[in-house]
Amino acid sequence: MKAELGGHTGAWVFQVWASFSIAAFATGIGIAYLPIDAWMRAFVGLGALFTVASSFSLSKTVRDNHEIARIESQNRVAPVAARPTAGAYRENGYPNAA
């Protein structure tokens, strides 16, 4: 049902989280066993962590920009001439209408 509404299936969500977890774990193990000094290992680890955090920020920004463009293309806002006036709100019984 979620897939029909534009959401993701449970299988897809599981695959995404599993692949991310495996990749992060494998990268961490690889960095831990590098034959270099601890400070170099820490530098590489922080670089990997920064890359992951930046990729989350980038993917969220790309998604948000896509959603904004999609909403704007649907022209959900009526033109100014088609919007009801304050008088129309008062006539329909809305209290506190300006």
Report on the architecture of this protein.
With 98 residues, the chain is an all-alpha fold. It has 2 domains: 1-33; 37-98, no CATH class. Helix content is 66%, strand content 0%. The chain has 3 helices and no strands. The chain has helices at 10-32, 38-73, 86-91. The longest helix is centred in the middle third of the chain and has 36 residues, at 38-73.
Terminal Cα span: 43 Å
- What percentage of the residues does DSSP assign to strands (E)? under 5%
Helix content: 55-70%
Instruction: Please trace the helix and strand order, writing H or E for each element.
Output: HHH
Provide the structure class: mainly alpha
Tally of helical segments: 3
Number of domains: 2
What is the strand tally?
0
Main β-sheet: number of strands, strand sense, barrel status?
Answer: none
* Form type: elongated
Output mean pLDDT: 82
Radius of gyration: 25 Å
